[in-house]
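To: structure subgroup
Subject: Chain for Friday's discussion

All,

I'm putting the inputs and outputs inline so they're searchable in the archive.
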Amino acid sequence: MRTTIDLPDRVFGKAKAVASLEGVSLKQLITRAIEHELEAGTPSLSPKRVSIPIVRSKRPGSVQVTSERIASIMEDEDLHVSS
């Protein structure tokens, strides 16, 4: 794939010099540098364990939670915060 990037003159000059000293093209040097950075910066894709707080109740099942009830509670909280 062809792309255009703007490099500071200092960085471009150093990259060109390093490529020349290593006997590789500037394209090879930049590709290698980007691949190295991508491998080093790749976050772990393994799922992270999440701890959900559990609230114990003396009367389990006594509270009916519905979407409407949650929306109402959130609306009430918004009104109190706005006031």
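Points worth raising on Friday:
The helical segments are 9-22, 26-41, 67-82.
The chain has a mean pLDDT of 85.

D.
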